[in-house]
């Protein structure tokens, strides 16, 4: 691959540092998508010794770093805004972004395969990375300077999702992930009660 194409790719990737998620951090600032991807790779490294299903860790790291890269072009869309029409538009835009990224890399089929693998969620690596994607949201809830902003969206949409039985069962395929998320949910529940007088039992179905 020509060196100038590497430079073109790096220019696209840098924009992920300028793309922000809804979640906020311990300093009150919004989390960048690049920071989110880095957190996932770090979590993958930390939980690796406890995993019960063998995974190719090199592939896991690749998926962590690449899974949201299309948002450098297509941008992030918060879950509460993702109506069926918006989801469809988001998918089309992200597919276009993936093709642009792959073309910059000289039609790299391995990179294209990474994106397809993550979307399909059929491999242990992709399933783990998706779980880490969700787990990082829990970490940000636990660490956020102020949790009040989360309840501003669609009548506690995010808390209802975060404390639902369906949500926690998402981590059942790896005991360590379930255990970590249970602790995080307990800490978030304590914060909500102490800081906002919110009893999360009302969100648990």
Question: Can you describe this structure?
Answer:
This protein is mainly alpha-helical. It has a single domain, classed as Hypothetical protein af1432 (Orthogonal Bundle). The protein contains ten helices and two strands. The chain has helices spanning 3-14, 33-47, 57-66, 71-74, 84-104, 109-120, 124-143, 157-162, 165-169, 175-196, and strands at 20-24, 30-32. A two-stranded antiparallel sheet has the order 1-2. A hairpin with a 5-residue loop joins strand 1 (20-24) and strand 2. Helix 2 (33-47) packs antiparallel against helix 3 (57-66), helix 3 (57-66) packs across helix 6 (109-120) and helix 7 packs parallel to helix 10. The termini are far apart. The mean pLDDT is 93.
Question: Total number of β-strand segments?
Answer: 2
CATH fold label: Hypothetical protein af1432
Helix content: 55-70%
Give a short account of the largest sheet: 2 strands, antiparallel
Q: What is the count of structural domains? A: 1
Shape: globular
Give the H and E element order. Answer: HEEHHHHHHHHH
The largest beta-sheet arranges its strands as: 1-2
The CATH class is: Mainly Alpha
**CATH-derived architecture:** Orthogonal Bundle
Q: CATH H level: which superfamily? A: Hypothetical protein af1432
The percent range for strand residues is: under 5%
Enumerate the spans where pLDDT stays under 50 for 5 or more consecutive residues. Answer: none
Radius of gyration: 18 Å
> Gap between N and C termini, in Å?
53 Å
